[in-house]
């Protein structure tokens, strides 16, 4: 199942210069494969250049395997320009932009991407953005960053880099309020809040990881990146629609139809009051169910 970027639940990180990992990613049921040019590639000019040279071939092989592709670029402008020139092609749908400093930073990248789209014969606006805020100065510009470009489909707050600047621990307890502010800014701008309320690094304890993903969805996240294939089915399940959630939403909508015919604006389901916000939420669940359920 191929999903448009605005419906992605899971993005699996794969180093752009690792053919073995890229080949393995073809059999992983992630909604997108995110080819990484940033942290998973050594920070030498040669390593960055070699990884950049792999993008076109890797993206094409993934797309031919039925995968949708995102590319995470580097933040320093000299690297970012070369990354973008290598990544903008028909086989890439999204660019992930780390360490965005301000709305003007997004607009600068947007201008370059537009030139690259024209150069390779793509329609202007084809490439979408996932924007990551990871600095203290950018945090106070979340609202303007989130609304700075129509290309932005997702907003993230990078825990590790942000916590380093802030002098705090990147723990769930410490980051919770900060990430909630990011979620609010994303929702106000009409873009998807992506990420976790906690850390994704402990992929070996999948039970603990799933519990954290569930808390993340409850807080308002819509999807997240994965650093190991074992995380993908959990993220897809939790950010998708599970059976009990689908059944409850269907019951709400069935009762809403009856109430509407009876001229009632509110009614009860399973002993709990239901009114417009609850109905709207149930409608959203059923929409997601049409996207994610296989039966």
From TrEMBL:
One of its GO terms (molecular function) is lyase activity. Mg(2+) binds at residues 134, 161. GO terms for biological process: oxaloacetate metabolic process. InterPro entries: Aldolase/citrate-lyase_domain (IPR005000), Citrate_lyase_beta/mcl1/mcl2 (IPR011206), Pyrv/PenolPyrv_kinase-like_dom (IPR015813), Pyrv_kinase-like_dom_sf (IPR040442). It holds the Pfam family HpcH_HpaI. Gene3D superfamilies: Phosphoenolpyruvate-binding domains. SUPFAM superfamilies: Phosphoenolpyruvate/pyruvate domain. Residues 9-229 form the HpcH/HpaI aldolase/citrate lyase domain. Substrate binds at residues 72, 134. Keywords: Lyase, Magnesium, Metal-binding. The keyword ATP-binding does not apply. It comes from the Bacteria. This is CoA ester lyase. It comes from Allopusillimonas soli. The lineage of its organism: Bacteria, Pseudomonadati, Pseudomonadota, Betaproteobacteria, Burkholderiales.
């Amino acid at each position: 199942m191929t999903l448009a970027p605005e419906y992605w639940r899971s993005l699996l990180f794969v180093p752009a210069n690792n053919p073995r990992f890229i080949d393995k990613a073809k059999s992983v049921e992630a909604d997108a494969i995110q080819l990484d040019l940033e942290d998973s590639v050594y920070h030498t000019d040669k390593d960055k250049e070699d990884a950049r040279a792999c993008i076109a071939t890797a993206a094409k092989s993934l797309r031919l395997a039925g995968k949708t592709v995102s590319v995470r670029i580097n933040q320093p402008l000299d690297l970012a320009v070369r990354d973008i020139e290598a990544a903008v092609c028909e086989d890439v749908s999204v660019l992930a932009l780390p360490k965005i400093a301000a709305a003007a930073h997004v607009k600068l990248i947007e201008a370059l991407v537009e030139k690259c789209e024209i150069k390779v014969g793509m329609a202007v606006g084809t490439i979408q953005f996932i924007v990551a805020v990871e600095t203290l100065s950018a945090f106070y510009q979340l609202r303007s960053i989130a609304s700075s470009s129509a290309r932005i489909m997702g907003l993230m707050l990078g825990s590790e880099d942000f916590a380093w600047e802030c002098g705090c621990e990147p723990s769930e307890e410490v980051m919770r309020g900060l990430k909630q502010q990011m979620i609010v800014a994303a929702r106000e701008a009409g873009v998807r809040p992506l990420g976790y309320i906690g850390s994704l690094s402990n992929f070996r304890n999948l039970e603990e990881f799933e519990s954290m993903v569930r808390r993340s969805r409850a807080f308002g996240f819509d999807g997240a990146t994965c650093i190991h294939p074992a995380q993908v089915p959990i993220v897809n399940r939790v950010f998708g629609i599970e059976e009990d959630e689908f059944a409850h939403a269907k019951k709400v909508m069935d009762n809403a139809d009856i109430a509407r015919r009876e001229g009632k604006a509110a009614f009860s389901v399973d002993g709990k009051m239901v009114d417009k916000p609850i109905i709207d939420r149930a409608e959203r669940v059923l929409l997601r169910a049409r996207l994610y359920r296989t039966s």
